[in-house]
Amino acid sequence: GRIVPSTAGTLAFDWAPLPLPELPEGVLPAPLYYLARDDAGIAQVWELAAGAPAPRPVTAGSQPVVDYAVAAGRVAYVTHTEVGIVALDGSAAQAFGALTTGRVRPTIGLNADASQIAYSDDRGLWTVSVGGSQQPRLIVSHVLTDDPATLRVYMQPRWNADETALLITIGLYEGSMLGVVSLADGAVTVLPMSAAGVTRWTADGRIAIGSPTVIYATPGLYLLDPAAPDAEPVTLAGPDTPVLDAR
Questions:
Q1: Which residue from 125, 150, 128, 158 is spatially nearest to 140, judged by alpha carbons?
Q2: Three-state secondary structure along 84-114?
């Protein structure tokens, strides 16, 4: 509260930050991870552990975290300048060199045992070994062109179970599509359905695609085989069933 000038002591009040909601014991079945600003206004990865009284920041860098992935007790992250990884308790932090950003929003993916990172920047899609056995390696370069027909941005990498391929979103001049990148040679296989909703590997190496909308996509839930991209998708839920999410 502060006195309003030219009044007989009238007080003006500003709103304080709203208190964080309190979750009853046992509401979260597993830790929750999300991006939020710290006291300095910098976006960090936060953890709200099941049963914990309050969330806590996992990262503590001077640059805002843009994207992150969690696996095996570690968090891999990208800012606009670097890619790194840190344990959930804040220890064992590693950085893997500078990013080139400005035109493409960086994204990141982490394999199941947190030993391999995939990420994208303005140059393309990269992988790097956490243990140092492989330095950053450019898997496939973006096609950043003024021609709407040929522009391609490879982003949002997701590792398959045997770590031989990445499921990616391919950004177009308008909209996007799905693809699979071979880590052996960087070959990109374009999948026949749009990346508008659910896009994830299944345990048997196929890809589940689902959408709740008719914009750039077909509603429903479908399975694709990346080894036979031209084959008819397996329909799990048809176009009369908009699918928001699936596991």
A1: 125
A2: EEEECCCCCCEEEEECCCCCCCCEEEECCCC
- Give the pLDDT confidence of 67-88 residue by residue, as tens digits: 999 999 999 999 999 999 999 9
CA distances from 125 to 31, 89, 100, 152, 240 (A): 29, 28, 12, 11, 36
Strands 56-57 and 82-87: unpaired
Which pLDDT tens digit goes with each residue over 157-215?
A: 999 999 999 999 999 998 888 999 999 999 999 987 766 688 999 999 999 999 888 77
- Taking CB atoms within 8 Å and a gap of at least 24, the contacts of 1-5 are none
Interval 214-247: pLDDT, tens: 777 789 999 999 999 889 999 999 999 999 888 8
CA distances from 165 to 118, 149, 184, 189, 194 (A): 11, 26, 8, 10, 19
